[in-house]
């Protein structure tokens, strides 16, 4: 706005003439026309000048305040700071710089910087000033500054160009120099450099912090929900959108109780703490489906109010994994229990073997001494029948308890199942219908045909007993399948093809409590005297030794279905099987040593006196000379004293303190050509391999038939 010409209102007075008579003064309200407009312009100009003066006063105060802050910062920074002009003159230096470069009054005054710089470092310092002049900042590291005689400072020189205006508004270039003494601060040098870098990046970080926080929230694996003081959702990250099946745009502004019905319980902690872990809660999806989530909250108070951040973690996968782990732990406990029971059963069966061997052997001797047809002979036959049933029962126990793999070969399950069907139909009640459907083109499995037949027969017999006297159906079928991962993990199967044999009946079924115990030895739901409780235990043992598994599905009133999984035999597996030698028919030569008239001498060693007495009687009747020992140490001493006296050594494996393998090893040392046989009711693959490695000619399984025992002795004694 142009200033008005005041001469129009106030003309210059003439001092020589007397003042004219003053006109009557009028107030502003009387002004009119150009005068009124001129007065208005004057007033507007005055107001504008006052506003500009106020702005100038505020700017001056701000500048003075900034200058004071700069001076305070400049003087209080624990660094040697100097302002150097383009002519190397120190315009300003803080107290730290004065103390460092002029510690004594007699030292060189700090009026210029370059005189303090070592001659060898001066080019680098000048280059740094040139770089600061061009780039704005520069640095010269490990510069030596000579302070006085015998004293110097080794420090890093940091230079920053600063621009200012002179009184004539001409640009003035100066340099802010900082000297960091590397003597006492050498250990902190890297930390100070990082701090300087962090200070430089602070502004950038402040601008990007919000975007970074947003990226963190959006990429979090937990659902993050922020609500304001009115419990309205303000932040709903993608994980929350996926967890609660609700779009973010739809969730924003909704009350927290829409997804967390227990929201009041969550927000109640705001008055008590700044954060809390509330544990498991029930949440709702947008469709109303319940979810198990783990909740933790964080509370923040600020000027605008309060913000609550809710962190929700989906527990569905964890609960599924916990259920799976609990199931696997239950299976592991069941496996350990079965293993312990099997070990116990094996030990009991081993001791019972000796008793049965003595019973059956003495029955054979008594039958030989008693004429047939007499009541005593009939009683002996009944004793023999009961003993053989007990022997079969013990063999079932051992089948369950043994962990060694059976002697397997490529077996066609169709043939085994049909053989089992023929055995079943002989004793099958007329009220029960049996149907068998096994495709003939199923691939062979690597199995022991006898044990497979025993497992299928036990399952069918168990189904017959479950149906009882009612009308019912039993269906047996087989198929080639590949169990899924859940089934493999549940049954401990490896990946591959399996032939599944299913036995399904429409009996009364079983509840969960019964199913949890059906594979326990001696557990049965049958009345006393109608079952031993070993049928399913034997099935479990057979499948375990075959590398397969057995699965059970049953419910009260819905029948039961047992599925046996046999691994398919590959060509490599069949080719790796050892050849089974053809059985040799036992000969019955006279018990006389070749080319001599003396009887063959057999040493029999067993810790059971009854068995030693029995074998002595059996073999002496067949023309052998028998020396029996219950102490393996005495047997070793006798063999050591007369090694050529004996033609055959038969020893038990399980003897306290001195096993049969120890005796076999000692006998081979004393006389390497002596035939040796090892007898036991619990012969594992490891025992068999160890015995053959030590030189044993045969393994005798107890209890066996008298004829089988005598045939083995005959064969070995005559060099067979």
Automatic annotation (TrEMBL):
The modification 4-aspartylphosphate is found at residue 652. Residues 209-262 form the PAS domain. GO terms for molecular function: ATP binding; phosphorelay sensor kinase activity. SMART domains: HATPase_c, HisKA, PAS, REC. It comes from the Bacteria. Residues 601-717 form the Response regulatory domain. Pfam families: HATPase_c (PF02518), HisKA (PF00512), PAS (PF00989), PAS_9 (PF13426), Response_reg (PF00072). The keyword ATP-binding applies. Residues 1-34 are annotated as: Disordered. Its EC number is 2.7.13.3. InterPro entries: CheY-like_superfamily, HATPase_C_sf, HATPase_dom, His_kinase_dom, HisK_dim/P_dom, HisK_dim/P_sf, PAS, PAS-like_dom_sf. It catalyses: ATP + protein L-histidine = ADP + protein N-phospho-L-histidine. The keyword Nucleus does not apply. Residues 347-570 form the Histidine kinase domain. Keywords: ATP-binding, Kinase, Nucleotide-binding, Phosphoprotein, Transferase, Two-component regulatory system. GO terms for biological process: regulation of DNA-templated transcription. This is histidine kinase. It comes from Acidovorax ebreus (strain TPSY).
């Amino acid at each position: 706005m142009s200033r008005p010409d005041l001469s129009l209102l106030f003309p210059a007075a003439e001092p020589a003439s007397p003042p004219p008579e003053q006109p009557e003064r009028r107030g502003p309200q009387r002004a009119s026309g150009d005068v009124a407009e001129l007065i208005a312009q004057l007033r507007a100009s005055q107001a504008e000048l006052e506003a500009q003066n106020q702005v100038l006063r505020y700017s001056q105060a701000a500048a003075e305040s900034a200058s004071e802050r700069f001076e305070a910062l400049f003087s209080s920074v624990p660094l040697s700071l100097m302002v150097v002009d383009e002519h190397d003159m120190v315009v300003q230096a803080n107290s730290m710089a004065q103390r460092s470069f002029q510690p004594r009054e007699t030292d060189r005054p700090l009026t210029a910087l370059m005189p303090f710089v070592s001659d060898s470092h001066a080019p680098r310092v000048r280059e740094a000033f040139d770089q600061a002049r061009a780039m704005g900042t520069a640095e010269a590291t490990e510069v030596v500054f000579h302070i006085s005689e015998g004293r110097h400072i080794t420090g890093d020189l940091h230079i920053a160009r600063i621009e200012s205006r002179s009184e004539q508004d001409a640009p003035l270039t100066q340099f802010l120099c900082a000297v960091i003494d590397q003597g006492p601060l050498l250990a902190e040098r890297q930390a100070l450099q990082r701090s300087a870098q962090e200070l430089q990046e602070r502004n950038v970080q402040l601008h990007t912090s919000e975007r970074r926080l947003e990226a963190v929230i959006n990429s979090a694996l937990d659902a993050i929900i922020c609500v304001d003081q009115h419990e309205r959702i303000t932040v709903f990250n993608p994980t929350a959108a996926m967890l609660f099946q609700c779009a973010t745009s739809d969730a924003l502004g909704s009350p927290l109780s829409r997804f967390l019905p227990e929201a009041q319980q969550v927000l109640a902690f705001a008055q008590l703490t700044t954060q809390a872990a509330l544990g498991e809660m029930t949440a709702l999806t947008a469709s109303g489906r319940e979810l198990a989530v783990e909740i933790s909250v964080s509370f923040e108070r600020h000027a605008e109010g309060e913000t609550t951040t809710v962190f929700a973690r989906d527990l569905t996968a964890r609960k599924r994994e916990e259920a799976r782990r609990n199931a696997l732990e239950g299976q592991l406990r069941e496996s350990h229990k079965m293993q312990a029971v099997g070990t116990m059963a094996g030990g009991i069966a081993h001791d019972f073997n000796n008793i049965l061997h003595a019973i059956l052997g003495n029955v054979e001797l008594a039958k030989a001494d008693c004429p047939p047809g007499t009541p005593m002979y009939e009683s002996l036959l009944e004793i023999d029948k009961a003993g053989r049933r007990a022997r079969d029962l013990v063999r079932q126990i051992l089948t369950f308890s043994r962990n060694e793999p059976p002697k397997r070969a490529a077996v066609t399950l169709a043939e085994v199942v049909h053989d089992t069907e023929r055995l079943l139909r002989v004793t099958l009640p007329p009220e029960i219908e049996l149907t068998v459907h096994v495709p003939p083109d199923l691939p062979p499995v690597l199995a022991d045909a006898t044990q497979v037949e025993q497992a299928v027969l036990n399952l069918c017999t168990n189904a017959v007993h479950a149906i009882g006297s009612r009308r019912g159906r039993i269906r047996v079928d087989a198929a080639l399948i590949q169990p899924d991962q859940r089934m493999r993990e549940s049954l401990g199967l490896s990946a591959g093809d399996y032939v599944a044999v299913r036995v399904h009946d429409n009996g009364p079924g079983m509840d969960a409590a019964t199913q949890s115990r059906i594979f326990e030895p001696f557990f049965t739901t049958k009345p006393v005297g109608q079952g031993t409780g070993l049928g399913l235990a034997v099935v479990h043992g057979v499948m375990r030794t075959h590398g397969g598994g057995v699965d059970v599905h049953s419910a009260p009133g819905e029948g039961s279905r047992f599925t046996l999984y046999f691994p398919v035999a590959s060509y490599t597996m069949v080719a790796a099987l050892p050849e089974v030698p053809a059985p040799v028919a036992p000969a019955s030569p006279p018990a006389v040593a070749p080319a001599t008239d003396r009887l063959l001498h057999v040493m029999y060693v067993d810790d059971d006196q009854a068995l030693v007495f029995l074998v002595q009687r059996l073999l002496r009747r067949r023309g052998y000379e028998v020396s029996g020992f219950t102490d393996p140490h005495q047997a070793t001493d006798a063999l050591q004293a007369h090694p050529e006296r004996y033609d055959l050594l038969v020893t038990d494996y399980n003897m306290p303190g001195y096993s049969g393998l120890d005796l076999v090893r000692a006998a081979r040392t004393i006389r390497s050509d002596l035939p040796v046989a090892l007898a036991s009711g619990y012969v594992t693959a490891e025992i068999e391999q160890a015995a053959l490695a030590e030189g044993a000619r045969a393994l005798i399984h107890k209890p066996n038939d008298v004829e089988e025992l005598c045939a083995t002795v005959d064969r070995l004694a005559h060099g067979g």
